[in-house]
């Protein structure tokens, strides 16, 4: 007969309250994960544990917090083979499974016989980490040297706390927070390394942020610097445009999991310092290293006209020279990238 729903380890309520508090700390996912494992060890005496984040594009896991495993096991946990094993055994689901609960005998699981059992482990608990909107974010796992410690009561507690732990390590929490503080932000998305887009929790998206949009291609070409951040303008004539433009803000996701490339936000353009659409496009070419002659040739106009535009830009930006004007344009996003200068205003 299985454990009753209310069968929980001693001090479970206290530990649950602590985990809930830790899940909302203003810290990084790794720090929250470490603290949560410390809390859980008060009621689940494990010898090894890990919280791993899922990379759905590479189909493998990134170890966010991992303790008690030898190097061979740690290396295996980040492989596609282990990801496939998790899927086949059902360890990605929201109900915890012990080794004794798996759909096949432990003797038929190669990793258990070749890695975990030789390391001294005799039982374990695994459960998928799924956030409130249904996204799978990773895996929580424990291993013990005594089968008795992976008790039904422990499984109940793990199942109760799994959604809170998923929230604690959700890799989209920090990007969503950063997007919210972007000046004038009205919509945002996350761009993955494969070019897909993911919605940010609680934030709207926008047609300019769809995976097929030229804006996202321009955004990725402007990343890679120090800091990994860029802001620029795009011609557009619908909300939230002003003066025929919107502002695009993009910053890299330099963390875990690795498939998250950048956050891209769209918003009102803000103060354009009186720059016209033509001047913003010319500044885009200038900040990319074009000369006045090359700009004139690309636009099929006399170089004197470009020189005049650049001088008016310098004056409007209160800059002593073109270099200073370019630096201000890059810093404040007062330019249209050359690849966006001919975008269809739709």
TrEMBL record:
Gene3D superfamilies to which the protein is assigned, alphabetical: 3.30.450.40, Winged helix-like DNA-binding domain superfamily/Winged helix DNA-binding domain
SMART domains: HTH_LUXR
InterPro entries: GAF-like_dom_sf, Sig_transdc_resp-reg_C-effctor, Tscrpt_reg_LuxR_C, WH-like_DNA-bd_sf
Any one GO molecular-function label of the UniProt entry: DNA binding
Alphabetical UniProt keywords: Transcription, Transcription regulation
Entry's Gene Ontology BP terms: regulation of DNA-templated transcription
Domain called HTH luxR-type: residue spans: 272-329
Protein name, UniProt field: HTH luxR-type domain-containing protein
Species of origin: Actinoplanes awajinensis subsp. mycoplanecinus
């Amino acid at each position: 007969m299985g454990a009753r729903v209310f069968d929980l380890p001693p001090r479970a309520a206290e530990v649950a309250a602590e985990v809930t508090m830790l899940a909302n700390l203003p810290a990084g996912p790794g720090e929250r994960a470490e603290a949560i494992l410390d809390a859980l060890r008060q009621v689940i005496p494990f010898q090894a544990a890990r919280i791993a984040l899922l990379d759905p594009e590479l189909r493998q896991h990134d170890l966010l917090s991992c303790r008690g495993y030898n190097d061979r096991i740690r290396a295996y946990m980040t492989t596609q083979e282990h990801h496939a094993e998790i899927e086949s055994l059902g360890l990605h689901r929201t109900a915890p499974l012990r080794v004794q609960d798996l759909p096949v005998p432990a003797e038929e699981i190669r990793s258990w016989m070749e890695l975990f059992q030789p390391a001294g482990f005799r039982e374990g608990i695994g459960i998928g980490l799924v956030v409130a909107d249904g996204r799978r974010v990773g895996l929580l796992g424990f291993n013990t040297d005594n089968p008795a410690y992976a008790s039904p009561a422990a499984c109940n507690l793990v199942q109760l706390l799994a959604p809170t732990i998923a929230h604690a390590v959700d890799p989209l929490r920090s990007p969503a927070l950063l997007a919210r503080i972007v000046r004038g932000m009205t919509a945002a998305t996350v761009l993955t390394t494969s070019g897909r887009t993911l919605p940010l929790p609680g934030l709207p998206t926008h047609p300019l942020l769809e995976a097929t949009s030229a804006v996202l291609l321009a955004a990725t070409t402007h990343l890679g610097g120090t800091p990994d951040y860029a802001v620029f303008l795009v011609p557009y004539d619908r909300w939230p445009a002003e003066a025929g433009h919107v502002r695009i803000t993009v910053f890299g996701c330099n963390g875990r999991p690795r498939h998250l490339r950048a956050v891209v936000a769209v918003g009102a353009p803000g103060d354009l310092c009186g720059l016209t659409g033509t001047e913003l496009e010319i500044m885009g070419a200038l900040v990319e290293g074009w000369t006045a002659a090359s700009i004139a040739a690309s636009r099929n106009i006399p170089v004197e006209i470009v020189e005049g535009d650049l001088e008016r830009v310098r004056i409007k930006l209160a800059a002593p020279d073109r270099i200073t004007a370019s630096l201000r344009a890059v810093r404040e996003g007062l330019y249209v990238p050359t690849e966006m200068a001919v975008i269809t205003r739709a």
